Amino acid sequence: MGLLENWINKGRLKSPWVVHFDCGSCNGCDIEVLACLTPVFDVERFGIINVGNPKHADVLLVTGTVNHRNKKVLKNIYDQMPDPKAVIAIGACGTSGGVFRECYNVVGGVDQVIPVDVYVPGCPAKPDAIIDGVVTALDVVKAKLGLGEMPKVTVID
Amino acid sequence: MPTHSEILNATPIAADAVVAQARSMFDQGYRLVTMSVVDLGDGNVDIFYHYDLNNEMTHFRLTHPKDKPVPSISPVYFAALLVENESRDHFNLQFDGLVLDFNRTLYLDEEITSTISAPFCKISTIQKKD
Amino acid sequence: MSRTIIPFGPQHPVLPEPLHLKLVVEDETIVEAIPALGYVHRGLETLASIRDYNQMVYIVERVCGICSCIHAMCYCQGLETMMNVEVPSRAKYLRVIWSELHRIHSHLLWLGLFADGFGFESLFMQFWKIRERVMDINEATAGNRVVISVNVVGGVRRDLDKTQQRWILDELDKLEKELRQLMKTMLDDYTVKKRTVGVGVLTAEQAIQLGAVGPTLRGSGVAQDARQLGYAAFDELDFEPVTSPEGDSWARSKVRFMETLQSMDIVRQAISRLPDTELAAKVPGKPTGEVVCRVEQPRGELLYYLKGNGSKNMERVRIRTPTFANIPPLLAMLPGAQLADVPIAALTIDPCISCTER
């Protein structure tokens, strides 16, 4: 592995840029994602920056259920992101469809459309849990680069 | 005395009087709160028109066959545009004279409109298979 | 001059939510705005046929995460009217306290987003920093930060003890002090006023004709607030609707700022008068009949139409949310505006798309 590649990978893992997509969420998880960026939780101290452009991003945060109209938008955003990338499904709706899974316009969780690496449960997920999800996603990216082991599945009761 | 929650006491209204009624409410300065549609299950729907003047509400009830076009009040109240399009999506109702007709694409995409004709009607409110 | 259509959204920087407008522009001036919705539509009103009326409380809370408590309150009040249940007065006061705390956090959230909308990022951070005090109150008193689930049909599920009441009052005092420090920047600053004064003007007559509600209506000088109807304990508390006659973006931000201060005052009044009774009444039987119920959300008047048929499932739950009513006024205030002012004008109705589409 060359020196340059080493250097790029280091930057990738030290300062992940995230793009947030609201995919039919009730806003509960959205405002918690935004709360992560603001002074009390302040993820920018870890080098995590929220960007608007999927082509700049390493990690995709998806909140909410997937419905028939936004699944195309979600797929599109995922395809635009450069490799290696990680997807985090936030909240009960993102992981499985939550309370809305039986609604007629709901496809289900995010994993019905794109591969998901980390699930953050909660209705809505707390900012602490979201930050933990991003940190876990970094291990996934690391494993995808062949620099570490894939994190084990952890279930917290 | 205006109340925050009331047992609905709606004046019945005929289909051909809906627009004239809306026009007269508009001229008196009423605000259109919204319309509500309920499927009665016998081929008819109840359409409620909720108006408000200084926090006091007035309701009208139109009982109408599901397959016949309903006169649209959106030329009078522009705000009715969204709710009428929503009813088109949910109940597959037709509206006569709708100012901007999304043709059942306000909320729904083809995947739904081609499989479920009217998601909010009783006959098609079914649970998803898987 | 030739016309161009510029899509505004669904994925864009001013709002986390997928608000989509098709803007028809001539040069830089908006000629027409066409809404395109459906990115958040779930169809949760149909869940009433699968979930029973008690479970629906938790579904309607998730119409919108920001004003969840108020949705549940409206639904419960509608059912209480339908089933003729008298709610204990302590529950009424507790509902006022939690719903006003929700209004404070929603308005602070909006003020922050609005500041971000005109590019004042440090002001955004300030508002969101002081908002965390309210989130802490929610978490400490109800166990969750956003969706607090305190309402049940017949009353509330949680109580506030004396220590908690004192602590809430303390926190509100600190919050008010911090908020008043930001008042001058938000409402009097020269650069802020340059961006907001005269943008997105809506006259009082237009506002009523287009069905505007909440701060959008009151920002045009119409003193109408559903809290005047005296639901929960509002008939025993002192407050006047906040209005501002200008009808522009500045007026709407002023209304929301003043309402935040007013809500703190209402919480203080409610805590000082908290009566000592049961928390919830027994609810007999199954709902039958039709009820229309209204409450004031942070974004405006919220209407529920409920129809029960004597079974445990509701026949129809119809929700008219404030943003749904505020979109036609937005469409009317955009033509004539500059393209760069669209985010400001669109934000001033406080759009909540998950409410709108349900």
TrEMBL record, chain A:
Cofactor: [4Fe-4S] cluster
UniProt entry keywords in alphabetical sequence: 4Fe-4S, Iron, Iron-sulfur, Metal-binding, NAD, Ubiquinone
Molecular-function GO terms, alphabetical: 4 iron, 4 sulfur cluster binding; metal ion binding; NADH dehydrogenase (ubiquinone) activity; quinone binding
Chain ranges of the NADH:ubiquinone oxidoreductase-like 20kDa subunit domain: 26-136
Domain of life: Bacteria
InterPro entries for this protein: Complex_I_20kDa-like, NADH_UbQ_OxRdtase-like_20kDa, NADH_UQ_OxRdtase_20Kd_su
Family: Belongs to the complex I 20 kDa subunit family.
Record PANTHER family: FORMATE HYDROGENLYASE SUBUNIT 7-RELATED (PTHR42989:SF1), HYDROGENASE-4 COMPONENT I (PTHR42989)
Protein name as annotated: EchC
